[in-house]
């Protein structure tokens, strides 16, 4: 019983000290990266948040989509991002005829491009 109680106490102690060390280390990491972040902003480095690296292989079913937007020119490949009715994003090829038809069906609907949430504007 004494051995298990000592082992349990040791585990509790290491957990507490480990979490404290992680908090301190995380703070130091942020301080160390701050000049790099400032340099990045000054040099104009920008990576668009809404880019597609591949297109869906499935056929676009427009009845499942509620909105869309086209990716910016800062992306490596042009794409149309559809927002389906359950909130998922689907990357599609803008040269695909079905994609173009769906875009016409949905009409030009301005939507927010916030990476965390998407809402109709």
From TrEMBL:
Ranges where the Chemokine interleukin-8-like domain occurs: 48-106
Signal peptide: 1-21
Cellular component, GO, one term: extracellular space
InterPro entries tied to this protein: Chemokine_b/g/d, Chemokine_CC_CS, Chemokine_IL8-like_dom, Interleukin_8-like_sf
Compartments where located: Secreted
Pfam families per the UniProt record, alphabetical: IL8
KW Signal (keyword) present: yes
Alphabetical UniProt keywords: Chemotaxis, Cytokine, Disulfide bond, Secreted, Signal
Gene Ontology BP term (one): antimicrobial humoral immune response mediated by antimicrobial peptide
Residues spanning the membrane: none
Major site of localization recorded for this protein: secreted
GO molecular function, one term: CCR chemokine receptor binding
Entry keyword Secreted: yes
Alphabetical list of CDD domains matching this protein: Chemokine_CC
Protein family: Belongs to the intercrine beta (chemokine CC) family.
Protein name: C-C motif chemokine
Origin species: Tupaia chinensis
Organism classification: Eukaryota, Metazoa, Chordata, Craniata, Vertebrata
């Amino acid at each position: 019983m004494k051995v298990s109680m000592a082992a349990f106490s040791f585990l509790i102690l290491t957990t507490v000290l480990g979490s404290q060390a992680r908090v301190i280390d995380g703070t130091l990491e942020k301080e160390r990266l701050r000049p790099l972040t400032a340099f990045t902003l000054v040099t104009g480095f920008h990576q668009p948040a809404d880019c597609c690296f591949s297109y869906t292989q499935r056929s676009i079913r427009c009845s499942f989509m509620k909105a869309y937007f086209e990716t910016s020119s800062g992306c490596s490949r042009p794409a149309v991002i559809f927002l389906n009715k359950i909130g998922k994003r689907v990357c599609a090829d803008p040269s695909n005829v079905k994609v173009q038809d769906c875009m016409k069906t949905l009409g030009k609907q301005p939507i927010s491009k916030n990476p965390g949430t998407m809402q109709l504007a």
